[in-house]
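Model the whole thing, not chain by chain.
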Amino acid sequence: MPVDPGKAEELRQIRRLRLAALLEATTLVLLVFVAVPLKHLGGLPQATAIMGPVHGLAFLFYLWAVMQAAGSGGWPKAVIARMVIFAFIPLAGFVNERLLWHQQQRLSI
Amino acid sequence: MDYYSWLKAAHVFVVFIFVGCMILNGFLLLCLQPGSPQSDRVIAFAKRWNGPVTGLALGFVWVFGLTLAYLGNWFSDSWLSIKMLLVLILSALHGMQSGAFRRMLQSPSQPPARYLRSSAAITIIFLAFIAILVIVKPF
């Protein structure tokens, strides 16, 4: 059965967003709950020196992917705002990933 | 070997590619009328070009830039914080440009948003401020 190119493109975009959300959320958790305590309680400033830039790059990739979704249209402004705001809250990024997974499942049917 | 200078040269090189592509994207978003075969061919090519070339250049802009800031101990300087904010906005703008090409192919009747049609001018203005911040370091 031929696949609708528009739908296939949309699925690719959601998969990319999910990957970016997962990377962003995981690196934020590692930064806040592992690297920061290691720096302040364990006397290991290298932990944040490494995890800081890693999370920064993951955040950039995520922001870029969200903005691409915003530019391509079809995404309500409230959803875009939620995806950006949740990226700043530790663990909330995983909620973004799950919501995107549900969206992907709906689109795959 | 002076690694800092080599890294700076690599950073400037990828910045040229990224900014050049962003200005071209803005020009295409302003001029192209989606719906005709010629325009759609150019839009499809621009969309393909944006991922591996402009997107990759953007990634290296950040990697090289952050490494330079770390090696040069620039993170405490205010000019760098403002510059990083401007580059962050440019990065987001590039994401929107990239999405707009996709939209133009899928819904040719919907023109790109006004700010995206002005994105070449926005990029040039931001670049002027970035050049001042980096060279003059006023803060």
